[in-house]
Amino acid sequence: MNFKWFRNKLTFVIIPEANGSVVRVNLSRGLIGGALLLAVLLIGASGIIYFRHLHSTASAYLRTSELNGRTARLEQDLKGKNAAIEQLQNELHSLSKQAEQVHSRMEEMKRLEQELKKLAPGSAPASGAPAARRPSRRQPAAARREAWAVRPFP
Fold it and tell me: Residues 39-54: pLDDT tens digits?
């Protein structure tokens, strides 16, 4: 290969104003080519860095917007679940009130039953008399049916 082209020198002449002296600069073509190549490489590297930065900024923005949307959906879900919990708590409160009412009515029914037993002395054993026993399994079936039979009111 012939490297004479790189060995040749280029002369740059700088001519200042009328009173200044002329300056000559001799540079080899290889040096100028190397400087141009270095400038192209620097511009290319800075372009790559710029586009990578642009890409990372865009992906960060997309991730942020995705997270914001996800947060909004989760907040909506949370609001819905809180409303459902509040509704269930209200239902539980109303059911507990109903249970209290049923309990008080049962107590009233027991009290009325006791009063009714006092008014009808023939149907219930007296307080001093022994209470009727529940039929045992050792008794014959007929005796058990008889013990459980409903007796008419006198």
Answer: 999 999 999 999 999 9
Stated pTM of the model: 0.45
DSSP symbols for the chain: ---HHHHSEEEEEE--STTSPPEEEEEEHHHHHHHHHHHHHHHHHHHHHHHHHHHHHHHHHHHHHHHHHHHHHHHHHHHHHHHHHHHHHHHHHHHHHHHHHHHHHHHHHHHHHHHHHHH-TTTS--TTSPPPPPPPTTS-HHHHHHHHPPPPP-
Indicate if the pLDDT at residue 137 is higher than 60. Answer: no
Q: Which residues contact 99 (CB under 8 A, 6 or more apart)?
A: none
| Per-residue confidence (pLDDT) for residue 152, from 0 to 100 | 52
Please state the separation of Cα 98 from the chain's center in Å: 35
Q: With 60 as the cut, is the pLDDT of residue 81 above it?
A: yes
